[in-house]
Design brief:
The chain is α/β, with parallel strands linked by helices. It has three domains: 158 residues, FAD/NAD(P)-binding domain; 101 residues, protoporphyrinogen ix oxidase, domain 3; 105 residues, Polyamine Oxidase, Chain A, domain 2, CATH 3.90.660.20. Strands 1, 2, 7, 8, 9, 10 and 16 form a seven-stranded mixed beta sheet that branches. A seven-stranded mixed beta sheet has the order 6-5-12-13-14-11-15, sandwiched between helices. A two-stranded antiparallel sheet has the order 3-4. A hairpin with an 8-residue loop joins strand 12 and strand 13. Helix 1 runs parallel beside helix 8 and helix 1 runs parallel beside helix 16. The chain is globular, with a radius of gyration of 21 Å. The model has no long low-confidence stretch (mean pLDDT 93). This is Amine oxidase domain-containing protein. InterPro entries: Amino_oxidase, FAD/NAD-bd_sf, Zeta_carotene_desat/Oxidored. Pfam families: Amino_oxidase (PF01593).
């Protein structure tokens, strides 16, 4: 006898979406989350009237079909996720608008004429966010893809985007998943953010399913026709276990799977310093990307109070500094005050008055923040996906598609639910 039909490990949107769909099909499902809150990489911290998005920052109006469908099922319409309505700027001596927007081809967005023309040529083609490996770009990295073009295309467009939003390094990361995601989500001016915080979606899903937070899973065992999760001296048996956690975590919990893809599917860390200000700063864009050529400490600056006015109390400001990928690993173990000093010190150049306006800083570290789409992982991705559903242990997460976005996580969770529903459709007793 099993304790539950499906045990889901991880209460991010991938695990919660899967649990919601499985519960709706009549399965007995329980979700186990090590943290004290749901949301995974879409968690939100609420402090002193500030609403702080600790990892994910926005969702797209385009390319997020499964997300919007599921939100509608939950009774959440688009007014709960208003448009940000502001663009992204890039620093080249000064802030320059139009990044990743059609108007940037006209205004320049910091790029010269030749680089703009090269950018238009480079972005031509059809890219599949679900199967990035079929794009025809092969195993080229971002740096290799950009090499034939004007150097500015890499230094002042592709590198700031991949490092500033994904934590990737252009010489390591495959270009196909990047172009697939960028071409699917449209202009940043159409992007949205949940008015009540980026955990809105996760909290709504969690209300519909059985979730146990503060529950650390140490091991997952596949017994053939069933599986078990082990937490200390406690074991919970299930007809199936869904590992909806980052790939390195999944590989550690269930090393017997032996997947080559799991062994090379690395994640990049993200370190952020959220600065609670006594006044609003920045603008007109809601985000500023900082190329490596300009600074190697801060990769992105988010003006959260411009992203959505509810992120900070009236008359106050909230600014998030995201560390450059080259320094993020060191900051993971550094004291909070030292992290704040290093990031705010670098940020002062781009946001004058930042340090004097800061009244408090909150540092957040996410060791496994975003799937790193290396060429090796890209080559193995399709084979791994084809192997899913063949045992009592299954997997879900944005990393299944090597696409660092919440839509990929939702899509993978829903597909896992479709695979698992027939497995557990028999007598649950």
């Amino acid at each position: 006898m099993t304790d539950v039909d499906v045990a889901v490990v991880g209460a991010g949107v991938a695990g919660l979406a899967a649990a919601y769909r499985l519960a709706g099909s009549g399965c007995e499902v329980r979700v186990f989350e090590a943290a004290d809150v749901v949301g995974g990489r879409m968690t939100t911290l609420r402090e002193d009237g500030f609403v702080i998005d600790t990892c994910a920052e926005q969702i797209a109006e385009r390319g997020y079909r499964e997300t919007w469908k599921l939100l509608a099922e939950l009774g959440i319409d688009r007014t709960a996720a208003p448009r940000i309505g502001r663009g992204i700027e890039m620093w080249r001596g000064r802030a320059r608008g139009g990044v990743a927007q059609p108007r940037g081809l006209i205004t320049g967005a910091g790029l010269g004429v030749r680089a703009r023309l090269d950018g238009a040529r480079a972005m031509r083609g059809t890219f599949d966010v679900e199967r990035p490996e079929v794009s025809g770009l092969g195993d080229r990295t971002v740096a290799e893809f950009a090499a034939p073009y004007h150097p500015d295309l890499l230094d002042y467009l592709l590198q700031p985007v991949v490092s500033g939003f994904f934590g990737w390094q252009p010489a390591r990361s495959a270009v196909a998943p990047l172009l697939a995601l960028l071409t699917s989500v449209g202009s940043p001016r159409t992007w949205r953010t949940y008015a009540e915080g980026m955990d809105t979606f996760a909290r709504a899903l969690a209300e519909k399913v059985d979730v146990t937070t503060g529950f650390r899973v140490d091991q997952v065992v596949d017994d053939g026709s069933s599986a078990r999760i082990v937490s200390g001296a406690r074991e919970i048996s299930a007809r199936a276990v869904l590992l909806a956690v980052p790939a390195p975590v999944a590989a550690g919990l269930h090393p017997c799977h032996g997947s080559a893809f799991l062994s090379v599917c690395s994640f990049t860390p993200v370190v952020k310093a959220h600065l609670l200000l006594d006044r609003p700063l920045g603008g007109p864009g809601y985000a500023l990307t900082v190329p490596t050529a300009e600074d190697g400490t801060v990769a992105t600056i988010i003006f959260d109070h411009l992203k959505n006015p509810g992120r900070a109390p009236a008359g106050r400001g909230l600014v998030t500094l995201m560390a450059h990928p080259s320094v993020a690993p060191d900051l993971l173990t550094m004291a909070d005050d030292d992290v704040t000093e290093r990031l705010a010190g670098a940020g002062e150049r781009f946001v004058p008055g930042l340090r004097s306006a800061t009244r408090r800083a909150i540092v957040r570290r996410v060791p496994d923040a975003l799937p790193e789409a290396t060429p090796r992982a890209l080559a193995l991705r399709a084979g791994f996906e084809a192997s899913l559903g063949q045992g009592a242990v299954d997997y879900a997460g944005d990393w299944v598609f090597l696409s660092p976005c919440s839509e990929a996580a939702v899509r993978s969770g829903l597909r896992a639910a479709r695979r698992l529903a027939p497995v557990v459709s028999g007598d649950s007793g």
